[in-house]
Structures are given as structure tokens and as C-alpha cells.
Amino acid sequence: GAGVSQTPSNKVTEKGKYVELRCDPISGHTALYWYRQSLGQGPEFLIYFQGTGAADDSGLPNDRFFAVRPEGSVSTLKIQRTERGDSAVYLCASSLYGPSSNEQYFGPGTRLTVT
Amino acid sequence: RKEVEQDPGPFNVPEGATVAFNCTYSNSASQSFFWYRQDCRKEPKLLMSVYSSGNEDGRFTAQLNRASQYISLLIRDSKLSDSATYLCVVNMGSNTGKLIFGQGTTLQVKP
């Protein structure tokens, strides 16, 4: 079946601009996660959704970052006033039931470059 | 101190070699543990979960020492296709899906 998909695969934007990154989880997965991975580092947790609600947003670095999942399926990560330090690969993952379901399936990521 | 620490390597080994990776974690409340594999410019994929009793999956053996807060991965009879980055991953508990990743250890298997 289809895995987690993310669009766009690459995004180049200028400093100060607004960007939206989209994640389409595996059908039927109730839990959705966003991570950010910088070069040479492991993924860093940003936010976790259970259904439509953000169950844990402790990883969002500041208030320029916001994520929504209005219908409990597709999620959008929104970054305002982008900075060069936001450049990274943004990974989305989903799992069937949430924290008790061990395996998180990752999408291919969106590579964001802020110039 | 990082929450999950790994030696980034790279580990360069010949085909057929046995190689071991280690990882330490700082939070004693951590509840579940995993090894993920990540190929260059690809997404991480679950390799195996790690249980207190130790577990094996083919050529791969994972072990957990809760007292020392230490996790290991052993790969026997290395194949060229094992070349990748291996990420040590910790989950803090049942109320959060937050996975904490180590930096990753890079393995290069040479013919």
C-alpha cells in the first residue's frame, strides 16, 4: 500500500518568506509526527498529533512554527518569517495507534533551503 | 549532554566482518528502544526494536542494559548492502510518541 507522502520534495525560499509543508500519512494511521533533520544529525522531534489535536508540541523551536491536522489525516507544517537556520529536511511520520504502536513510518521528507 | 549519544564513526569494515555499535541514553525513565537504519538522502526505517532480554533478527542482534543505560547493535557477516547510517532511538513513554534520535553511526562495508 501507499506509504507516507510529503510535498514538496524540495523547497527553496528566501529569508523572511512563509512556507507550508504537507504530509499525507498512511491511510488509517491515527498518529502523525513531524521531525526536522539537519545535516549529520539524527531527526529532532517537533510535534505529535493524535487525531486532530496536537498531543505534544514541545519540540517546536519557537512561535514561527505551527502545524495543523484539521481532519485527522493530512497535516501541514507552517513556518513564518523563515530564517537560514530553518534549512533542513522536514520529515513526517505516522503510526497506527499512537505511542503504544511502536513503529513510526517515515515519509521521504521535504528538503527546505532558506537563502 | 545529548539525550542519546552515539559514536558517529565512520566504521569501515570488510565484507564478512562483525561490527558492533553502542549507544547511551541519559534519561532513566526511557521506556522503549529501537535501531533505525537510514540510507543516504532517504528516510529512516525501523531496523529492530530492542528488548531487555536481547533480541536477534537474522544477522542482527540488539541488546539493552537498563542499569547502564546502554544499547548495542551487533551485525554479523556484514554485507555491502549494510552500508548505511544506524540511528539509536529512545521513546520516553506511553504518553508521547516523541522519539529521541542519536546522531547516527555510519557504516561503510567494503568488498
In words, what does this structure look like?
The complex is a heterodimer of chains A (115) and B (111). Chain A contains no helices and 11 strands. Chain A has strands spanning 5-7, 10-13, 19-24, 31-37, 44-50, 53-56, 65-68, 75-79, 88-95, 105-106, 110-114. In chain A, strands 2, 4, 5, 6, 9, 10 and 11 form a 7-stranded mixed beta sheet that branches. A 4-stranded antiparallel beta sheet of chain A has the order 1-3-8-7, with no helix packed on it. In chain A, a hairpin with a 6-residue loop joins strand 7 and strand 8 (75-79). Chain B has 111 residues and is mostly beta strands. Chain B is built from no helices and 11 strands. Chain B is globular and about 45 Å long. Classes of the chains: A mainly beta (115), B mainly beta (111). The A-B interface holds A 31, 33, 35, 40-45, 48, 50, 55-56, 58-59, 91, 95, 98-100, 102-104, 106-109 and B 4, 8, 32, 34, 42-46, 49, 87, 89, 91, 93-104.
| Unreliable stretches covering 5 or more consecutive residues of chain A | none
State the major sheet of chain A.
Answer: 7 strands, mixed
The SSE order of chain B reads EEEEEEEEEEE
User: Average pLDDT across residues of chain A?
Assistant: 94
Question: Which word captures the global form of chain A?
Answer: globular
Give the low-confidence spans of chain B: none
In whole angstroms, how far apart are the ends of chain B? 37 Å
The whole-number mean of residue pLDDT values of chain B reads 93
Distance between the termini of chain A: 37 Å
Structural class designation of chain A: mainly beta
Largest sheet of chain B: 6 strands, mixed
Oligomeric state of this protein? heterodimer
Number of helices of chain B: 0
Gyration radius from CA atoms of chain A, angstroms: 13 Å
DSSP, total strands of chain A: 11
Shape of chain B from CA axes? globular
Beta-strand content estimate of chain A: over 45%
Question: What are its keywords?
Answer:
heterodimer; A: 115 residues; mainly beta; 7-stranded mixed beta sheet; 4-stranded antiparallel beta sheet; B: 111 residues; 5-stranded antiparallel beta sheet; 0% helix; 54% strand; globular
